[in-house]
Amino acid sequence: MRRVAILISGRGSNMVALVRDMAGDHPARPVLVLSNVPAAKGLRRAREMDVETAVVNHRAFGGDRAAFEAALTERLEAARPDIICLCGFMRILTPGFIERWAGRILNIHPSLLPRYPGLDTHARAIAAGDGEAGCTVHEVTDQLDAGPLLGQARVPVKVGDTVDALAARVLSVEHQLYPAVLRRFAIGDRSPVYMPEGIAPHAGADHEPGSGTLP
């Protein structure tokens, strides 16, 4: 049984989707939800699902990224995760941290990588006149949003779309794609999962527009 730690900075809707999917017959179990933001709403939601939570407040380190990541690593090592899932964790991780957990960190990004790494993905897709958008799950490396692709899901960009409308549509498929990828990754299957346009939103998924993540 693989042990999964989930890192969040906000509401953690993707975290909720992962934890719900790990109930019952699943090759992995959540052992920790950790946030860099003490007031992150996802911490309460994790506790309601009986998952252990922790906080490593990046602000307490006064911009010392090495000290912050040392504290992060200490807390993660205590939980002994086999896999780390970033779910809207809004801190850029250093190469040293990534190397420590190499091959075990997953991230979900709200675009069809390699298109639109970084932030403001939905606005960029709309401005470019794209006919489709979506999300990508990838392994985290020291290159921004450029690690091996593990899955993609697509949604249409509609005429007159706003950033919030497109973000909500993409988030609904994030809640399906990330659990599907994690389920396979936990048994050692790293072949990409591809979800076409038109898949139905995950039952019970809630929307968190603007939930872009940074590895």
Write the layout of secondary structure elements.
Layout: E1 2-8, H1 13-21, E2 28-35, H2 41-48, E3 53-55, H3 65-79, E4 83-87, H4 95-100, E5 105-109, H5 121-127, E6 132-139, E7 149-156, H6 163-185, E8 193-195
Parallel strand pairs: 1-2, 1-4, 2-3, 4-5, 7-8
Antiparallel strand pairs: 5-6, 6-7
Summary, kept brief:
The chain is of the alpha/beta class and 215 residues long.
Biggest β-sheet strands, sense, barrel: 8 strands, mixed
In the predicted model, the low-confidence regions spanning at least 5 consecutive residues are 200-215
Q: Please count the beta strands (DSSP E, at least 2 residues each).
A: 8
Number of helices: 6
Q: Strand order across the biggest sheet?
A: 3-2-1-4-5-6-7-8
Sketch the topology as an H/E string, one letter per element.
EHEHEHEHEHEEHE
- Assign an overall shape: globular
Helix content: 25-40%
Mean pLDDT level: 92
Strand portion, in percent?
Answer: 15-25%
Structure class: alpha/beta
Distance between the termini: 25 Å
Global Rg: 16 Å
Task: Describe the protein's architecture and organization.
- The chain has 215 residues and is α/β, with parallel strands linked by helices.
- 32% of the residues lie in helices and 22% in strands.
- It contains 6 helices and 8 strands, in the order E-H-E-H-E-H-E-H-E-H-E-E-H-E.
- The chain has an 8-stranded mixed β-sheet, sandwiched between helices.
- Helix 2 (41-48) links the parallel strand 2 and strand 3 (53-55).
- Helix 1 runs parallel beside helix 6 (163-185).
- The longest helix has 23 residues, at 163-185.
- It is globular and about 50 Å long.
